[in-house]
Design brief:
Order of helices and strands: EHEHEHEHEHEHEHEHH
Strand order of the largest sheet: 1-2-3-4-5-6-7-8
Structural class: alpha/beta
Strand content: 5-15%
Number of helices: 9
Length: about 250
């Protein structure tokens, strides 16, 4: 399995980070992408990728963390992206959920600048889109050469179809195992297995039966099982296809 989105640089993993990451292959998780949310966490993600063969990094400025960012921070992301194990620009995007987040227009500017950087560097992007579906899609459409994944996809099936036609991938996370996941099931119905990525967003969004606990990549199996049931595919087959999708998107050859 390939967990294409897990924040192992997060302080929640301080007590057991090394032991947990070292053990993941024993639980069938052979690859992980750790996305940064600001310069510091992007640097930490690269450092983890240097230490663990099966860990790769993404580098970027998250919409919740982009306040006060400008030329200097974008340039630092550019430099970090030059690392051989930095495989994407992310986590980037828009988040209109919290009133305390940076102003929408500012988020949009930072999002555009990082999309332009990804296109320039020929890297995929990992997009965070929370309560900002219309603007996220509109900005993506300004960059026809951009490619990547809408992480923890929460938009409509109709928007999913637009993204899929453009060659984008959709990330499925723990919330698909929750009781109110009807919309996610509709999205899964229109998403071919070849466009599915499996994610945990660790340490957040633990799936059932571990909802409410700290999440980690070992829970990827529960997400795969739910999707496999919806898609009428064996869980092992779905996980294998999704892992290949991730390797293709992020240019990982192992």
């Amino acid at each position: 399995m390939f967990d294409t989105h897990a924040h192992y640089d997060d302080a929640a993993f301080d007590p057991d980070r090394d032991a947990l990451l070292s053990a993941l292959p024993e639980f069938g998780v052979n690859l992980v992408v750790d996305p940064g949310c600001d310069v510091e966490s992007s640097r930490a993600a690269v450092a983890l990728a240097e230490r663990f063969d099966h860990v790769y990094a993404a580098v970027g400025l998250h919409p919740e963390n982009c306040g006060g960012c400008g030329d200097a921070e974008v340039e630092m992301i550019r430099r970090l992206a030059a690392h051989p194990k930095a495989v994407a620009i992310g986590e980037i995007g828009l988040d209109y959920h919290w009133d305390t987040n940076p102003p929408r227009e500012f988020q949009q500017d930072i999002f555009r600048r990082q999309l332009a950087l990804a296109v320039e560097l020929d890297l995929p992007v990992i997009v965070h889109d929370r309560d900002a579906h219309g603007d996220s899609l509109a900005i993506i459409e300004e960059f026809p050469k951009a490619r990547g994944v809408f992480h923890c996809y929460s938009g409509s099936a109709e928007m999913a179809e637009v993204l899929l036609k453009r060659g984008w991938y959709l990330g499925f996370d723990g919330p698909i195992t929750y009781k109110n996941a009807r919309k996610a099931q509709e999205v899964a119905a229109v998403t071919p297995p070849e466009r599915i990525l499996l994610e945990t967003d660790s340490p957040y969004l633990s799936p059932v039966p571990n909802r409410g606990k700290r999440n980690d990549s070992r829970n990827l199996l529960y997400i795969a099982q739910t999707l496999a049931l919806w898609k009428n595919i064996a869980p092992e087959k779905l996980a294998q296809i999704a892992a290949q999708n991730g390797k293709q998107l992020f240019g990982i050859e192992v």
